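Notes from the 1:1 (GR / supervisor)

We went over the backlog. Supervisor wanted to see one worked example end to end before approving the batch request, so GR pasted a single chain during the call. The sequence is below; no edits were made to it. Supervisor asked that the structure be written out right there so they could see what the output format looks like.
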Amino acid sequence: MKSNSIKPDLEKEKYQKNIKKFYAFRFFKGLHLFAGVLVPFFTIWGGISFTQVMILQAIFTFSIFLLEIPTGAIADFFGRKTSLVIGAVVTAIAAAAYAIYPNFWVFVAAEVLWALGGALLSGADHALVYDSLKELDKESSSKKVFGRMSSIGLMAIAIAAPIGSLIAEAINLRATMFLSAVPMLAAAGIALTFKEPEIGRKKKKEKYLKTIKEGINYFRRHKELRTLTFDYVPIAVLAFFMIWTYQVVLEKFAVSIALFGLVHAGITIVEIIVLNNFVSLEKIFNGKRNYLYFSAFIVGGGFILVALAPNVYIALAGISLISAFGLTRRPLYQNYLNKFIESTNRATVLSTISMIYSFTMAISNIIFGRLVDWNLEITLIIIGGLILALAAASKLEEGLLRD
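Structure output shown during the call:
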């Protein structure tokens, strides 16, 4: 009897360690040395236009769109741990591939590789963590855990971005991308030590295509998932565009490239503050739905503020507002979405949702990338106006936002 009682305790300890290990995984995965100088990497070292940069991102996101469902099925069928290990290794290879030669088509190949790695990581990461929490009967703490995961990833970027800017200044822009492969390989090593949750495993060897079909049909059958997804995706996509345009804004105000990383670090710090204060913010705004509603208005207003800013300091204030309330929406919605998904289909369903996000992002990148080359300020005003309109039209109900 004693040995039987010890086994469950040891199993639970492994699942508890999963959470701690995943924090380390997210840290190394987030050490993007290139984060603060990505636009100059493409436009200066790569010698391509901003429109071409956005075409690359469209290729990246469309590739993820094509790969999300099959890679989500890989995670559900072969295991989330396997998907995370392969995803991290492929992403490391992609980072090194970018730095091979400054050529648009080399970048295209690297984008597709990075998309494959990202798709293998997407869905599998939240699925493994959420089902580890279920094994511990602690799934009610998922909002806190997902927020902390995002915070740690952002803290890694906040640390890496200034270092990358200094590397770019002291060595070259190419080095910042090439060296980013090293921490990603470390993340792969950590992923090898995860304990696969039993809850999320298939009970029998079902056909691979059946796994894909089940995940898609599950999403189609659940109105709650569709409502949450179509409320979160458009605003999250538009808000993320600030990550690409803020460096163009800094160039407009003649900010030194050595300082780009510090600005990116500042962006991540305000994100971390919000990610760790969702509960307090929901109380301030008198409810979860009200927080999402009014924070969207803040993001829309932030884009317009950046567009009309007479100096870099006001522009940075607008960028901070967008980062704090716009870039933090995705992990919050991940918490709400997971409440409506069964464990056996979790990675595939989350990948279905990510696929919708990726497709929307691909189309947006092509449109707004071209518009930025035409007129930066008008583009930012258009994005801000769209976010305000989407917030006003939101049909989200408080009852869907479960803890």
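Supervisor's comment: Residues 54 and 365 are 5 Å apart (CA to CA).
Batch request approved.
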